[in-house]
Amino acid sequence: MPTQYIRKILESRVYDVAVETPLHFAPFLSERLKNNILVKREDLQPVFSFKIRGAYNNIIQLSEEARSRGVVCASAGNHAQGVALSAKELGIRAVIVMPTTTPDIKVKGVRSRGGEVVLHGDSFDQSLAHALSLVETEGLSFIHPYDDKDTIAGQGTIGMEILRQHTGDLDAVFVPVGGGGLIAGIAAYVKYLRPDALVIGVEYEESACLKAAMEAGERVVLPQVGLFADGVAVAQIGEETFRICRECVDEVITVNADEICAAVKDLFDDTRSVTEPAGALATAGLKKYVEREQITEKNLVTIASGANVNFDRLRYVSERAELGEGREAILAVTIPEKPGSFRRFCETIGRRNITEFNYRYFDNRDACIFVGVQMHPETETRERLIEDLTDAGYAVEDLTDNEVAKLHVRHMVGGHAPDVDNEVVYRFEFPERPGALLNFLKRVGTQWNISMFHYRNHGAAYGRVIVGIQVPEGERHQIPEFLDDIGYHFWEESDNSAYKLFLS
């Protein structure tokens, strides 16, 4: 047990800039989950995120001479604003290196708090390398976002506040995990004073670096990370944070994007706060844990860690929240291509509301329709709907958990191309900045013909694209090396059932 952190947490200097945030009872969530749910409102900090605690405590612990030279960090979001405001409060220089893909709202947020913004590189790694070079060339002190003892201690004050604000039975605390600074600080304090309380980490399934490290027994580097929950998009857990987590964290749960979007909606319903995806991560994990364990009447705390979300991104969150709550099913259904078929299909659906219907004529035998159906999980399951349709003679495939179907195909249905041969399909993420899409098209289209393309802006720092490329069988072996040279994250989707049903 890392007991040396207890004193560091108690002596942390965070309240010069941070506030003691409330622990709010969540009535709607509590009633629905049949447990006592408490939300730690770190979205109410001056920078709308818990990061201000660790940033300020790290800077204030520097010597006066080091502070006088100024500080530097690499961040695209919450840590950047925490460092900028902390430095402004102390009257010192703060250089914030941010990727060129950083949304304008976050750049303005840092500048408004007195930070000198340096836009460098397309990725965090490139920004980090430049920030570290400024340590050498300008004598600035680097302020680490998570893997630093003073940063961890600053975040640990959240655990101290939770135990002071809730003195009764405490069954579990759910904490979002990126690099591990927040959960390390909270876990060290809570497990020392309340060893009976569970500390459960929650990670986005596409950036689950702590879970991977726990399973391997050592820190590992994820080959790639998903960027939907950008506040926790970290490829490797911190060295010091992992040391603490191995001793103090009871379990790590992973959740998907839909479950996070549903949690954003849950927190809005209970607090009227619109959290960022990473800010709702812990709540998504709490819901998943309650469903899995079938527990009731327990005292559960979730951390609402931040609310720095681009307004444009809410479109995507809203669209996916119903899926995350189990209130919408996405299905591919084959119906006869003849008059009256759609009416008969609707009669089979019954009083269930159809939320989406996509179809285009292909041949005179069968029609494959892409349909969304509203569900009421309190009274019926998706499995029951599929069973009803199957019993009525329909061929049904469930696409509710199919990312390609939800991100792309639902906007492209009707694109069958029987005369296109040698088509392979890949899904990409690339930096969302002026000229990036054109650059992507130029790079991908130089060697083979592009036979299908879909892109939709989701208000995030990274664009998502699905591409069909005509590649002769004898040249398929060249694809991985060719795509690696482009430098974007990619996944092959040639065997994806949604693609085969609607687009191939």
Strand and helix layout:
Layout (H helix, E strand, L loop, with lengths): L3 H7 L12 E3 L1 H7 L2 E6 L9 H10 L3 H6 L1 E4 L3 H13 L3 E5 L5 H9 L3 E4 L4 H15 L2 E2 L6 H17 L6 E5 L4 H13 L4 E7 L4 H8 L22 H10 L2 E5 L1 H15 L9 H13 L5 E6 L9 H11 L3 E9 L4 H9 L4 E5 L7 E9 L7 H10 L3 E4 L4 H5 L15 E9 L4 H9 L4 E8 L5 E9 L8 H8 L2 E4 L4 H6 L2
Parallel strand pairs: 2-10, 3-4, 3-6, 4-5, 7-8, 7-10, 8-9
Antiparallel strand pairs: 1-2, 11-13, 11-14, 12-13, 15-17, 15-18, 16-17
Helix pairs in contact: 1-8, 3-5, 3-8, 5-6, 8-9, 9-11, 12-13, 12-14
Please give a quick description of this structure:
By secondary structure, this protein is α/β, with parallel strands linked by helices. The protein has helices at residues 4-10, 27-33, 51-60, 64-69, 78-90, 104-112, 124-138, 149-165, 181-193, 209-216, 239-248, 257-271, 281-293, 314-324, 341-349, 382-391, 403-407, 436-444, 479-486, 497-502; strands spanning 23-25, 36-41, 71-74, 94-98, 116-119, 141-142, 172-176, 198-204, 251-255, 299-304, 328-336, 354-358, 366-374, 395-398, 423-431, 449-456, 462-470, 489-492.
